[in-house]
Amino acid sequence: MIPPQQQNTITPHTPDITNRPENTSVHAESPARFSIPHQIRRPVTLKFEDVSYSITLGRKKNVCVTSSQEAKQTRKVLNGVTGIVGPGEFMAMLGPSGSGKTTLLTALAGRLAGKVTGTITYNGHPFSSFIRRNTGFVSQDDVLYPHLTVLETLAFAALLRLPKSLTREEKVEKAENVIVELGLSRCRNSPVGGGTAAFRGISGGERKRVSIGQEMLVNPSLLLLDEPTSGLDSTTAQRIVAVLRSLARGGRTVVTTIHQPSSRLYRMFDKVVVLSDGYPIYNGQADRVMNYLESMGFVPAFSFMNPADFLLDLANGIVADVKQDDQIDHHEDQASIKQSLVSSYKKNLYPLLKEEIQRNDSNPAFFTTGTPRIPWLNDIYAFLVGTENQWATGWWEQLKVLLKRGLKERRHESFSGLRIFQVLSVSILSGLLWWHSDSSHIQDQVGLLFFFSIFWGFFPLFNAIFAFPLDRPMLMKERSSGMYHLSSYYIARMVGDLPMELALPTIFVTITYWMSGLKPSLVTFVLTLLIMLFNVLVSQGIGLALGAILMDVKQATTLASVTMLVFLLAGGYYIQQMPSFIAWLKYISFSHYSYELLVGVQYSVNEVYECGPRLYCRIRDFPAIKCLGLDNMWGDVAVLTVMLIGYRVVAYLALRMGLHH
Fold it and tell me: What's the pTM?
């Protein structure tokens, strides 16, 4: 029980920022003066009441199931977490690993899949596209394109996220301003690096500031960050937290999770929420937590002990550094200590939090500074702004920006020396193996044409499989921020991949065709090249569809290998007379149709070859060609066209469904 004289020291409160200067200077240890928060037009008060969340782990073992449903094991990740944080406040969420910090932060950002019980409101309103546009979310992992420079990263984000009312030059200028304010001028033209990049980019602290800068471009009223100091040294962590404190002092509502803050970092927090196994054990002012713990009998053995370390020990049920006191039993097990902290919270702090939330409800915050304090008028205004178009830029502008960004990012991968060497070496080797084979070697020429269709079936398919699984983290992040339509991203990705997807087969066919002695006709060569490019696009569509459906590179690669093996065997070259019960396989093989078209344009209807001494036969009567049935080549084109469109539609729908789940 908290003594009456201490209750007033623990009561959470929301500081009044109306008289604060907008650009309050950062903590004394901050390396720079920040002026990013020029004006917060929509201050946000975030309230969360009795928030709970459970996950399903799987089927219980050794359980007798009496119903038709399988018994499933569930785990409660959050258990009735309540709190409030307003404009100008910097709240930190503490707790051991697995305590539910990230889950709670994700729920507050409106990005948690599954049903969250309890109430989360923003200025008294539920989450909406309007709130999304005024919320910045920085994940623990820096999801950035490694080959883009710092300036390019922020400039592309500005072009996508800033409103249509600004010109492209003004958007880029805002990105330049963010670079200056976050102290990134020194590395503005350096590649970000990290991730799967094979080269070293900027440092971890600089990368984290780039992630924060992407969110600061939209001047968010609410900023949420998941462990922004993870993996950083103490000095870099100090700088990051100083930046966040400065942003909060500009009128924003800033909430962050943090794993093990130093005492210097802890002193920068206004409020702390401490979780233990999903249960809250403290929620209030950061500088009053020690008084609260002392009132319960938990007094640190060292007067200079870091409050964060002490809190985390208690959240784990450890009292090794607590002074010997008759009020507590040091031999209690961890579960009992945690339970006592949870019980004390419910008895002493929870009622105070509910009172503060009720006081805030009676004097609600407004979406814009200067809005008349008339409840019904404010509700109408919130409804109207909440129904705005959720996209900051138009579809065509999104397409152009995404296309340019994709070309800049993937040019290093697409036009890599290794891929070019791979194609050139195979093309030259093929040309040497089939060196000037003439019409007397029809079987060899037919084999070469089948090799064309198979090689340029495998190669683009396996490259396309990686597209969406590798892009998924970035796609999830940017889509959840409402940066662009999925369709604009999809079209930009398709168009951006065309230069490399079509350039390499063009080089391959050009080299191999003339080295191998195929029909020396420019028209036939052009038709062969067009068929090969058609084949490549269909194959790429299958790879995109498999990658989007499975979203797992290993599974997609395995399934693609089996699929291509079936297409290889059913292509019409290895087996000319297939059993009727399995002959239908060739009709789903794009390689079969491409092979038929290649043979059809290579050998005309009346073309002959020497089939014996002074004996000439029609080439189309050659057994390996006759079995193909080349009487309906336009039908083959129609089927490939359906496949070209169909597989890409399937890939788009699978991608949309996968992101929604």
Answer: 0.82
